[in-house]
User: What shape does this take?
Amino acid sequence: MSAPDDSFVNGAVVDADTAPRPDGEIVARRVGPGARPAPVGERTTTLAADNHLAAALLTLWQRVSDADGAVGFEPGTPRSEIAPAVTEAINGLRAGTRHAVVLTAGNDLVGVAFLVRRPSKIQRHLGEVVSLMVDPDRQGSGLGRRLVLEIARLASEIGVDTLLLGARDREELHAFYRATGFVEYGRLPDAVRLADGSSFDEVRYRRVLAG
Assistant: This one.
């Protein structure tokens, strides 16, 4: 899945590690407030929250939805219905109310996860992980784990010590989040209702980061 053109990474603020990378190498990039460059030698750079990212994010979101990825939409949802969620995400990055880690392979966006810090001063230690997505063609290659690792690292750097997230009640999601250090602490019954009449609980997870 490719961005609209080769200018997908234009506007990025990158660290000193700017040497060309092999085709297909997965690079983690940060988007949002305080997305400062990583130390020299680390494969992490920052990326602009621009229209190219928005277009690539919309394509990724639709692909994951069509693969029944449980990211807020049902398979077959048109781009026009997903677009407002993309707009909200991009506006949050630009306004500084959310952070993101994206995974890119060349000019392809292959994964993303967002982090939203609680706005209240007494809850600034809490961060919600939302819309963690990996391109369906890359499923099973460890990119989901990498996104969790990168989000946890980012959270620690900005003063978040507890990650929260909600996920649809599916066994494969339980297994993934347990394997990445999350613990279930509650659930909202009948939180998701699909067009075919089926429904799912929303399972709530937390992960306390090491100090």
